[in-house]
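Much of our argument rests on the idea that a fold can be written as discrete symbols. This step matters because it turns folding into a mapping between discrete strings. The record that follows shows the chain in one-letter code together with its fold in token form.
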Amino acid sequence: MPASRSADHASFAIDDSTNRILRDYPLLCSRRITLPGQKMHAHDGYEFYFCLQGSGSYWVGDIVYPLEAGTLTVIRPRTLHVPKMPARDPLERYVLAVGEAYMDELASNVPQFAECLSCVVIPGAPSSQWHLPPSLLAEAETALTAIEGELRDRGAFFGMSARQWLIRLFVSLARGSLSAKPETEGDASAIPVVQRALRYIADHYREPIEAETLCERFHLSRSQLFIRFKEATGYSIRQFLIHYRMEKAKELLLRRVDLSVTLIAEQCGFGDESHFHHMFKRHCGVTPRQYRMRHRSR
């Protein structure tokens, strides 16, 4: 039951650490709880982000996916992304990265693997998200734990064993996808209301967004919408909107040096430059101009 949309492939920050690991060995698998501060980044491998427990959001280009137990977010190589969550709450997940050449080799040489892959990685979509039922999530966790152990211990024939567990994982995910009802852009009733709210914010963040507008649009009371949004993302709507606008502003400050700070403030929905300066310094510790100068000098 995937949801997918197009995303911006332009490079913003290259994840050299992940790229180095995948050059050394084309699989990376780790169970994580803490979430260090990250910026929008991209790397050369596929990423499969299995959320086991907790809540937050995953920003992929101009797309925002909610994170909750059972979500699997799939990201193609060189697609910009960053996970977000409140600092006080843990987000337990497995992150699996697979080198592009390694994936291509499996698709070419392992019978039916290409078919399995196309069930999980939606053709033509830079990213997508699946909602795994508990039984499938448990099955995936077993495979991911085995892959992580093989890559960590590097015992005899670890490469063959990790490969077999990876194939088994994709078979399970592909079988699960065949019995799932796809979520599409045109079928709004099949998409959870929080995900629709996130999409609305991603599409309209440049404009004033009032809670009443969202309530009317999604036919929920203010308290119902606020509770569902907080449970799914870990943020209030106001907090999320500020963070989303801030990420967009930081991206424009570095990618579009031809744009003035005033114009960036307007394009990111902050209204006026004075308010933008205040919010930016509060969240980043420096002014927009200082942020631009510091990163340009690196």
